[in-house]
Design a protein that fits this description.
Number of strands: 5
Structural class: alpha+beta
Helix content: 40-55%
Strand content: 15-25%
Distance between the termini: 36 Å
Order of helices and strands: HEEHEEEHH
Number of helices: 4
Oligomer: single chain
CATH architecture: 2-Layer Sandwich
CATH topology: Beta-Lactamase
Shape: elongated
């Protein structure tokens, strides 16, 4: 499932949203969002008005990919946590279960220590959700597909 397109079911999407809503409150963060490794926004919470979440999601995935290249050059498997400090806002970026990226944007109302503590708990919850999702997707894939019976001959006959 690493390079495959991830399918989100309504139940898991709701669970992810609940977990990141809780993180925003507990960590006193401005914004939290979850992105897949392809840069697609999965869920967001907090003060997202006025933010280009699509661009943030895409750039975050690119940042993770670039950092992965740096890690390989240094003989590391990966750098699973990134931190960027700005004048007003800070970014804490975590790779979750090798599948998704958790991004926390925070300012002076919070601290890096509090963010790291709360992200650690959130990571455990999100890992459970995405592992469950992977199992659900694998069992659905192993099940009968409505296209499993269609052969190349059927397709050729359809367009002849």
């Amino acid at each position: 499932m690493d390079n495959a397109q991830m399918v989100m079911y309504e139940e898991e999407a709701q669970q992810v949203t609940e977990v990141i809503d809780q993180l925003v409150k507990e960590a006193n963060a401005k914004v939290v969002f979850v992105v897949d490794k392809n840069g697609q926004l999965i869920s967001s919470s907090g003060e997202t008005e006025g933010l280009d979440t699509t661009s943030l999601a895409s750039l975050t995935a690119g940042n993770i990919a670039a950092t992965g290249g740096l890690a390989k050059l240094l003989g590391e498997k990966e750098f699973s946590i990134l931190f960027h400090e700005g004048e007003k806002d800070n970014l804490h970026i975590s790779l979750i279960a090798q599948r998704v990226i958790l991004v926390v944007i925070f300012d002076e109302r919070s601290s890096l220590g509090l963010i790291r503590l709360r992200v650690k708990k959130t990571t455990e919850k999100l890992t459970e959700i995405f592992e469950s999702l992977a199992k659900k997707a694998a069992s659905a894939e192993a099940g009968s597909s409505p296209f499993a019976e269609i052969t190349d001959d059927d397709i050729d006959n359809l367009f002849s």
